Amino acid sequence: ADAALAIIGTPALALEVATPSGTLEVGKRASYQIRVRNAGTVSARNVQVTALAPPEFKVVRATGGATEARTDANGRVSFPAVEEVAPGQTLTFTVEVDAAQAGDARFKAEVTATHLKNPLREEQSARVTGR
């Protein structure tokens, strides 16, 4: 006897934001690394990564993905959508910021994808001190 068996997998994205250690001093540069890993069994589709730098930071450069990221005047960084992230694959994006003013800075990252009903979000805090 023969039987048909359909095996259905699922993508499983994980978001991690690596932060600079310690406090930041106004005028110094820091880098935030955003990593998105597909720990699932099938590819994730249309993966979009965005970041939001708080007013305490000024975005200097954003790299990762196939083309240049866009940054608006409010510190929002939009990376181009990645069409497919294979199982086991990790995407890495870097946002370089200058500490512009003292305060409690909250750097935020968000990931959306076709299979996600709600975005993945992570927030990291940093203390920015004056000179």
Describe the model.
This protein is mainly beta. It is built from no helices and 11 strands. The strands form 2 sheets. Strands 2, 4, 6, 7, 8, 10 and 11 form a 7-stranded mixed sheet that branches. Strand 10 and strand 11 form a beta hairpin. The protein starts with 12 loop residues before the first strand and ends with a strand.
Outline the fold blueprint.
Layout: E1 13-18, E2 24-25, E3 29-38, E4 44-52, E5 57-63, E6 70-71, E7 76-78, E8 82-85, E9 90-99, E10 103-112, E11 120-129
Parallel strand pairs: 2-11
Antiparallel strand pairs: 1-3, 3-9, 4-7, 4-8, 4-10, 5-9, 6-7, 10-11
> Main beta sheet, described?
7 strands, mixed
Percent helix? under 10%
Elements, N to C (H/E): EEEEEEEEEEE
Integer-rounded radius of gyration = 18 Å
How many H/I helical runs? 0
The count of β-strands is 11
Low-confidence stretches: none
Shape: elongated
Q: Could you report the average pLDDT, rounded to the nearest whole number?
A: 91
Head-to-tail CA distance between termini: 78 Å
Q: Tell me the β content.
A: over 45%
> Which structural class fits the helix and strand makeup?
mainly beta
In a nutshell, what does this entry contain?
This protein has strands at residues 13-18, 24-25, 29-38, 44-52, 57-63, 70-71, 76-78, 82-85, 90-99, 103-112, 120-129. It has 131 residues and is mostly beta strands.
